[in-house]
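FAQ: What does the model actually see?

It sees only this:
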Amino acid sequence: MTAKRGTRKSKRPGGRDARVATIARNTTETRIEIELAIEGKGQYTVSTGIRFFDHMLELFTRHGAFDLELKCDGDLDVDQHHTVEDVGIALGEAFNKALGEKRGILRAGYFVMPMDETLAVAAVDLSGRAAFAVDTKVRTRLVGDLQTELVTDFFEGFARGARANVHVMTMYGRSNHHKIEAIFKAFARALRVACSRDKQLGEMLPSTKGLL
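And it is asked to produce this:
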């Protein structure tokens, strides 16, 4: 993968406890390659062909303190939908794979993110069950070059791929750019907490069901 403007290629952390994953997802509509490290430095190389979407994934990586290399070649001549949704699915699959059995993780996390005049909240539960709720409060068709209705499709795809509950919401705000950006930042920080190791539980599975 080729580094994009101002980014650095991720250095993968070593050690047997490093939680990393590689995903290749190829369909007739998209071809996606992902390398993910949960214990990262917020370094990224992202290319989807949708610049505003790239920006959201870049700040997601930085605020989550992950390392991410992601390349998607999609049928943008048809529509942006396949690219955005499939990236969400593949990224969710990468997190699910990197977390393995999910022993010793906090499992759930939430974050309230202010961004100037905007406030957004995100909550994540790595429950093994896919569910999502999204309310961006964005009423314009485009922000930058991104079709804004597809923000919901991204989070739905991530929830499916990660087998997680994902809830994101803009509480209030004026700038549509800020509304979407605040949601992605809140989501990154909520997911960062959910993926974190729980020192108190140790290697215990955070569920009474015996699996996640």
